[in-house]
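Backbones bend. To wit:
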Amino acid sequence: MSASAKDWSQHLQQIFDDGKRAAEEMREENSLLRERVAYLEHELDQAPRRHQETQVRLKTQVHSVTAQRDSLAEELSSLKERLDLVHADNDEIAEQFVEIERQNSNFISLYVASSQLHATLDHDTVLRNIAEIVINLIGAEKFGVYLYDGNTQEFIRSIDEGMEEDELVVVPFGDNLLSQVARSGELFLDPNNATHKGDLPIAVLPLVVANELMGLLVIFELLQQKDGFEELDLELFELLASHAATALMSSQLYTRTERKAATLEGLIRLFKDQS
């Protein structure tokens, strides 16, 4: 074989080998493509099932989230009800606290008034203490304390506030409001005209101790800033009805005793001087 024939044979063999190698590579690539197609077909077949599983999973999650939301809503509603109850309890406690404070204040006022009434046996001081209670605690602007004279059967104005010098100084026991209250022994309040300013009493309180009438507290006007009588005023009236009467009686007895003692001392000194 000549050299050129040999070279041509080698060249053909090279082309054959290259074609064989290319064919082998194509077969391998074709095999890979078939596998890829098979995988894609498998994935395509599995897609509906996976989609359905995803839907089921999502529905389960939605159901779980909905259940949690409903549970939280119930807890929130329960907490709101408990909070409303706490607010109601707080409001009730606040009202009770205010009421307790008011009662304590009233108790202190009553205690101070009672202490003032029994702090002295001087008759004039007792009358002034009664007047201070009526002014500062009851809030009266015009009033008078009338002591009863059993000998003359008259109510005599002994101390007053806001009254004219010659205004209703002496009231005879007879057919009048003061005498009616004295007979009944009950507090008189004018419910229809509690804040009027005039000459007619809006409150008359009999001062009685051991069934003995000591006198009357007669109120004609309240202070401008006061609309009417309050619960504390009624308690103060009740206190004055007994304690003021007791203080007045004690001061009168003390005054009589002092006078008798002074008279006896004068007689004793007189007898000593004569002897």
Observations:
- The first helix runs from residue 3 to 117.
